[in-house]
Amino acid sequence: MASSRSSLDQNLSCPVCLEVFKDPVILSCGHSFCRTCLQQTWTQSRERECPVCRRRPSREQPLPDVTLRNVCESYKLEQKERPGRRGSAPESARCALHCERLSLFCVDDETMVCVQCVSQDHQSHSFCSLSKAAGLHKETFLSHLTNLEKTLQDFRKVKDVRDLMAAHVKFQAKRTEQQIKEEFEMLHLFLRTEEEVRISALRKEEQEKSQMMKKSTEELEGQIEEISTRIRESEDKLKDDVLFLQDLKGATERAQYTAPNPKPDAGALIDVAKHLGNLRYRVWEKMKDLSPYFPVVLDPNTANACLSVSADLSSVSFSTENPQLPDNPERMSGYEGVLGPEGFSSGTHSWVVEVGESEDWIVGVAEESVSRKEGCMAVPENGFYCIWRWENEFAAATALNATEKIATSSAPKRIRVSFNWEEGQVTFSNADTNKDLYTFTHTFKKKVYPYFYNNSKNPLRVLPFQISTNASTSL
Fold first, then answer.
1. How many other C-beta atoms lie within 10 A of the C-beta of residue 262?
2. Interatomic CA distance for residues 234 and 243, integer angstroms
3. Residue 72 in contact with residue 12, Cβ under 8 Å?
4. Could you give the angle at the alpha carbon of 347 between the alpha carbons of 345 and 352, nearest 5°?
5. Which strands sit side by side in the sheet containing 337-339, from one edge to the other?
6. Beta strands in 311-413 (DSSP E)
7. What is the reported pTM?
8. Dihedrals phi, psi of 388, to nearest 5 degrees
9. Torsion sign (Cα): 243, 245, 247, 251
10. Closest of 70, 54, 53 to residue 115, by C-alpha
């Protein structure tokens, strides 16, 4: 019968009645018994000795085994709560010190123990069943597990973004390289064409000068031949006095050549200075129409995925293609905005934005710290200093849920934005009429960037500056 019991039942069973201890007491030899069983044994025998080892106890009355009693009560409670199950510890869960099954949980030390651990190292501690201890600690553990799973999700999201960023870096590099090649090919084509034009002009001048020199040379050779003939004729007549005197008048006229003396032709040489003088400067001067200068360009790394930025980074429009872009920290993913790549923390800056017929746009400046991942109003409280147009309404965004309408006979087509850091002013004006539209005044402490919002397919376009190539000299 004892062999059929579980190890836990054996460890918690009284050696006399073979049942789970009831009000256990412990003898000085270390063996425990039910109080009633021990008293009955001693009543039946004259010797008051341990029923197991036969040693006489050092005390007259055995001491209550409080720890074992608590363990037995916890075990009995577990059996009532989970009928049909006799222990819950897995076969591998054994005490490293006593090689016994770990059957209880010490609440004080928060560790599993075996029966021998209870009587030796955990006396007067509180115990509970493994299932109860697991239940108590699982709630906290599950909370940690939930947080860990959330952390894992966060890390996976960041990894997904980084993977997308890595792929996008390769795409950007390839596309940017192609655009650089196209830009330089345009310059190369211009330079090759300009080279051909100038070489053609040189060859044309060479041909004209050569023809002129040939004609002059031919005329000179004719005159030389004429003079040579007259000399020969005159010499022949001088050999015979009769012949000389017979044609004295004619011979004298032939000997007198009245043509003007020849001189080298002026301007006969190639005008080298015309072809080479300041050649590179004059070529660069002609390149100004091919190479516009934009005082402000757009940073595609900050552009919302719904926006399309032109190849030269000068214009932005709303797009329905929605390319898959990485949600990098710089990107304005919360609203259809884009920033310039260069921020201002000093000086005066100005640029002109062609808004054209667009009916849903915002232009101005934004502080570096503005929210980029969540939508927000483009107002000073949020770090924006802008004017906007919505359908036929044209206004300045002055505060949350507050705007100041801008009086104008018609919506301007070109907006000039002027920023002065030292004076703390952002001024908007009509670039066609130079009429001021609105001015924000603020003491700026953070770097600000050009800001553009467009919810229209009509592009917002930054216009290039007119570059003056007039050279000035100084000594």
1. 11
2. 11
3. yes
4. 100
5. 337-339, 448-454, 360-367, 384-390, 393-399, 402-405
6. 315-318, 337-339, 348-354, 360-367, 384-390, 393-399, 402-405
7. 0.63
8. -150, 165
9. positive
10. 70
The residue type at 406: I
CB 363 within 8 A of CB 417: yes
pLDDT of the residue at 89: 44
pLDDT along the chain (475 residues), means of 10: 52 82 86 85 77 77 84 78 48 72 86 82 82 83 90 91 90 91 92 95 94 89 88 86 82 80 83 92 85 93 94 92 85 94 96 92 96 92 94 86 81 94 96 94 95 92 80 48
DSSP of 19-34: SB-SSEEE-TTS-EEE
Helix, strand, coil content of the chain in percent (nearest 5): 40, 20, 40
Per DSSP, the three-state class of 399 is strand
| Helix axes 66-81 and 130-238, enclosed angle (nearest 10) | 70
Q: What is the DSSP string of 47-70?
A: S---TTT-PPPSSSSPEE-HHHHH
Q: By CB neighbour count within 10 A (0-12 exposed, 13-18 middle, 19+ buried), where does 295 fall? A: middle
Task: Name, in order, each residue with C-beta under 8 angstroms of 104's C-beta and a sequence gap of 6 or more.
Answer: 71, 74, 75, 112, 113, 114, 115, 118, 127, 128, 129, 130
Half-sphere exposure of 454 (CA within 13 A, CB side): 29
Say which amino acid occupies 346.
S
H or E stretch at 153? helix 130-238
pLDDT score for 468? 66
d(CA 378, CA 357): 21
- What does DSSP say about strands 348-354 and 127-129: parallel, antiparallel, or unpaired? unpaired
DSSP code for 259:
S
Helix (H), strand (E) at residue 183? helix 130-238
